[in-house]
Hints:
four-stranded mixed β-sheet; alpha+beta; elongated; 8 strands; 42% strand; four-stranded antiparallel β-sheet
Amino acid sequence: MKIFVNKKNRQTKRKMFLTMIILSFALFGCDPPRYYNLFIINDCNDDIEVKITDDRGKKSNFKIEPKGKQMVHEDMVPQPLNIGVVHAFFKEIIVTKENDTSKINYIDKDLWHLEQVSKFQANCCLTVNPEDFE
């Protein structure tokens, strides 16, 4: 007695198996995204004007009142939460107060403070001080 195995059926099963493996890696093999909310805190006694150019070239302007806090950007990356990624979100941050422009490089990661909200989310805060304009 001969048993006939359909080649087409075997190829279909093989393709289905390979597809399942590829989907498993695609869905479970990658790091989940990490979300960042970026804030600027005005620790000055006067309003400040913030001009931001993000990593995609989009420009935004913000006016922040004294002792105020403003979310200026939100983004996500696949790497673990790390303050070092802040510089990747911005091309330029310019802060002015009463026609005086700060010379501080606000993209410097050492000026930002990371607050981990959850395993996959963080708030990053930059504080602008009166000394920044001296």
